[in-house]
Write a structure and sequence with these properties.
- The chain is an alpha/beta fold and 268 residues long.
- 34% of the residues lie in helices and 21% in strands.
- The strands form 2 sheets. Strands 2-3-6-4-7-8-9-10 form an 8-stranded mixed beta sheet, with helices on both faces. A two-stranded parallel ribbon has the order 1-5.
- Helix 4 packs across helix 5.
Length: 268
């Protein structure tokens, strides 16, 4: 038997090392939380309340409830944010909802901000469900908008697949985490080594509420061609809005998204 060429040995070693590193550190690669002390106080311009939802005896979800006057309140937006920072990073998007009479409930994932607990895919789904159940104590399903941004689109879509809502809105979503990571690590068995699957394409098939999706053609984080795969599982009447030249972080500056969001939030 011939010896394995030296170059092939090097390739195999590099392949193995990259695979081991990704498997071991994927939580840090995919999520970049910023932890905040439980007793710290956020300085937000928007009126807000801190809400704590017990998960178990060792962990709890921290959620910020951005309020609107009762006389103006039309409903609530359950906002599932991206993979970086904490609520403080995403507070700047709140005003577009509150200005239309929608309160915003924004939870931090386990290990983000003041929330505690183990950051698993199932824990994120369970947290989203608890937030929804709390919302149902005050709102009817036709008053609840589920909104997901970037990484949070997986949680938002899963929640909308098992609970009724007025509308599901997704900003810069992915088809599934496996298909997204597979664009870069196609040579690895991601079904086995990827701990966060977030199969939004499968969840979308079970969403009965109207769906609106925004994605930019120049998104360098979640490529447009990956998100565009979701078109095949949308219902008649659902919308996939393409923002020409839009990137991952600037869609809210485009008139196409501003005008569409104004139209959606004005309607009752």
């Amino acid at each position: 038997m011939k010896k394995i060429p030296r170059w092939l040995k090097i390739v195999l070693i590099v392949y193995a090392l990259i695979g081991i590193a990704f498997y071991s550190f994927q939580k840090k690669i995919l999520f970049q939380p910023v932890v905040v002390a439980r007793d710290s106080v956020y300085q937000f311009e928007q009126p807000y309340e801190d809400v704590w939802i017990p998960v178990d005896k060792n962990s709890e979800t921290h959620m910020v409830h951005f309020t609107v006057p009762d006389s103006l309140r039309k409903g609530v937006v359950l906002y599932f944010h991206g993979n970086r920072g904490n609520i403080r990073r995403y507070r700047r998007f709140v005003e577009k909802f509150t200005s239309h009479g929608y309160a915003v409930w924004m939870p931090d994932y386990p290990g983000f901000g003041k929330s505690t607990g183990d950051l698993t895919e199932q824990a994120i789904y369970d947290q989203a469900l608890q937030v929804y159940k709390r919302a149902r104590q005050f709102y009817q399903p036709d008053q609840i908008i589920i909104y997901g941004k970037s990484m949070g689109t997986g949680a938002a879509t899963q929640l909308a697949s098992v609970r009724d809502c007025k509308r599901l809105i997704l900003e810069t979503p992915y088809n599934s985490m496996r298909s997204l990571i597979g664009m870069y690590l196609w040579m690895y068995p991601l079904q086995s080594i990827l701990k966060y699957q977030f199969p939004s394409n499968e969840f979308m098939k079970k969403v009965t509420a109207p769906v609106t999706i925004f994605h930019g053609t120049e998104d360098g984080v979640i490529p447009y061609r990956n998100a565009a795969k979701l078109k095949s599982v949308l219902k008649p009447g659902d919308e996939f809005i393409t923002i020409e030249n839009g990137s991952h972080r600037d869609l809210n500056t485009f008139i196409e998204m501003k005008s569409k969001m104004d139209s959606l939030l004005r309607s009752r």
